[in-house]
Amino acid sequence: MDIVGVGTDLVAVARFRRLIDRGGRRFLQRWFSPAEIGYCLSCSEPAQHAAARFAAKEATLKSLHVCSDGPLHWANIEVTRDAHGLPSIEAHGAAWELAKSAGATALLLSLSHDREYATATVIAVSAT
Length: 128
Fold this sequence. Notes:
Distance between the termini: 6 Å
Number of helices: 4
Strand content: 25-35%
Structural class: alpha+beta
Radius of gyration: 14 Å
Low-confidence stretches: none
Largest sheet: 3 strands, antiparallel
CATH class: Alpha Beta
C-alpha cells in the first residue's frame, strides 16, 4: 500500500454550535448526509460530532491535494461507522472521482473531539 496523501483539520466546536443553533437542519443538510445528520442529532453534544465530521471532509480534500472551492457537494464525503462503531470515510460521486484521479483506492480516517475542538486525519492510500 502506498500513501497518496495525508490531510488533517482542526475545527472549533463552538463555531458549529452557533451554526447549528442559527441554521438548524438547513445548515446541516448543506454539509452532511442524512445518515450523518441523524447520527449527530442522536448524540448528547451534536456540535462536537458535526465539527469532527466537517474536519474529516476538509482533511479528505487535503489528503487528495484538492482545493475545497470546487463544485463538490460536501455530503459526497461521508463519515460512516462500522459494526464496532469505529469511524471511516466514504467518498461518493464526484468525491470518489477526485480520489481515483489522485490515485487513491482507499481513505483511512481518525477522529477526535472534546468540548472545544474536533480534529480529523485522513490518509489516502493506493493499492499499488
